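Module 6 notes. Inverse folding takes a fixed backbone as the condition and produces residue identities as the prediction. Think of it as a translation problem where the source language is geometry and the target language is the twenty amino acids. Below is one complete input and output pair. Work through it position by position during the lab.
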């Protein structure tokens, strides 16, 4: 999987309190009622969870993910500034996953 960031998104992330060099793309299905009805989010972590895969990236952040969640995403993703200019969005070539990409800044390691 490849996850690129636009310069605007990278700057926005770097300015957020609690965001370090390492992020984890998660597919949060908690409270959604079904494992295939999840919401993508970014989680700040200190180190990868056991079994995590590393995405190829273009930016200043290392991005990991649970390989079991790879099925929910395209092979190439982009984290960009949201259309409202205030938040972040996650998109691929075929769809927009969310225009309100949540960043979970709890600083615990891994999954």
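Target side of the pair, the amino acids:
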């Amino acid at each position: 999987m490849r996850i690129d960031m636009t310069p605007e998104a990278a700057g926005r992330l770097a300015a957020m309190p609690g965001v370090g060099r390492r992020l984890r793309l998660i597919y949060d299905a908690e409270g959604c009622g079904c494992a295939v009805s999840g919401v993508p989010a970014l989680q700040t972590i200190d180190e990868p969870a056991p079994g995590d895969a590393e995405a190829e990236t273009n930016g200043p952040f290392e991005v990991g993910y649970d390989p079991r969640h790879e099925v929910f995403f395209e092979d190439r993703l982009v984290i960009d500034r949201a259309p409202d200019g205030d938040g972040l969005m996650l998109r691929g070539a075929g769809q927009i996953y969310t225009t309100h990409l949540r960043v979970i800044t709890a600083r615990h390691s891994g999954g």
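Reference fact for the lab report: The helical segments are 7-15.
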